[in-house]
Amino acid sequence: MNSGRFITLEGTEGAGKSTAAAAIADWIRQRGIELLITREPGGTELGEKLRALLLAPAIDAPVPKAELLMMFAARVQHIERVIQPALDQGKWVLCDRFTDASFAYQGGGRGLGAQSIEVIEQWAHPDLQPDLTLLFDLPVDQGLKRAARRSGPDRFEQEKLDFFSAVRDAYHQRMQRHPTRIKRVDASMNETDVLSQAKLMLEPLFVD
Ligand SMILES: Nc1ncnc2c1ncn2[C@@H]1O[C@H](COP(=O)(O)OP(=O)(O)OP(=O)(O)O)[C@@H](O)[C@H]1O
Ligand SMILES: [Mg+2]
């Protein structure tokens, strides 16, 4: 039996992750592979409630450590209830954001650093890492413009450019640290070209 693959999509706001996710899912399913598409924070009833709390602009917004722990609370629920069972059944899982996003947003953007997140990661999911992560990379102002055309700003999108620059830098650091797993997609290109890049990077996963 073909064993499952765990693929994650990362990148700053409006980079085109969710747009590409739908197209990538179609493309993988066309090969006769059973694939689950999901997102973080979210993917479970509890996770979606935490997502709403995390994204809604709030006066009593979560402090950075609370934000990090809420992300991981949603994540472990998602892993144990949805992601791991699907992988165990041989399904492929495509997840819009995962733990690299915590390193980027809470580690980089919020300034918590990578070390504390590594400790939590080791405890929360010691045995699960994506087989492949596509990092949708583009200048933050371009992404924010795209995101602004889509909808009003959520709590993260209300942050200043400095925040997103720190997030992008932290994503680049993740890529340097995990060059085999994390592949960069030039997200400034049009949707067709972005998808072509993604397909090239996904191709090796189809080899047993
Ligand atoms: N390659 C592209 N070129 C131009 N516009 C794009 C491209 N990909 C997506 N878009 C548009 O940009 C907007 C943001 O795209 P999308 O929602 O896929 O980004 P995202 O990375 O999922 O953002 P977020 O991090 O906020 O979830 C959408 O309106 C989408 O139609
Ligand atoms: Mg999205």
Topology, please?
Blueprint: E1 6-11, H1 17-29, E2 35-39, H2 45-55, H3 64-88, E3 92-96, H4 99-109, H5 114-124, E4 132-137, H6 140-150, H7 161-177, E5 182-186, H8 191-202
Parallel strand pairs: 1-3, 1-4, 2-3, 4-5
Helix pairs in contact: 1-8, 2-3, 3-5, 4-5, 4-7
Magnesium ion (MG) binds at residues 17-18, 96.
Summarize the structure.
Helix content is 53%, strand content 13%. By secondary structure, the protein is of the alpha/beta class. The termini are close together.
Descriptive tags:
208 residues; alpha/beta; Rossmann fold; binds adenosine-5'-triphosphate; binds magnesium ion
Give your account of this protein's structure.
The chain has 208 residues and is of the alpha/beta class. It has one domain (6-38, 91-206): Rossmann fold. Helices cover 53% and strands 13% of the residues. It contains eight helices and five strands, in the order E-H-E-H-H-E-H-H-E-H-H-E-H. It has helices spanning 17-29, 45-55, 64-88, 99-109, 114-124, 140-150, 161-177, 191-202, and strands spanning 6-11, 35-39, 92-96, 132-137, 182-186. A five-stranded parallel beta sheet has the order 2-3-1-4-5, sandwiched between helices. The radius of gyration is 16 Å and the shape is globular. It starts with 5 loop residues before the first strand and ends in a 6-residue tail after the last helix. The relative contact order is 0.21. The model has no long low-confidence stretch (mean pLDDT 96). Bound molecules: adenosine-5'-triphosphate and magnesium ion. Magnesium ion binds next to helix 1.
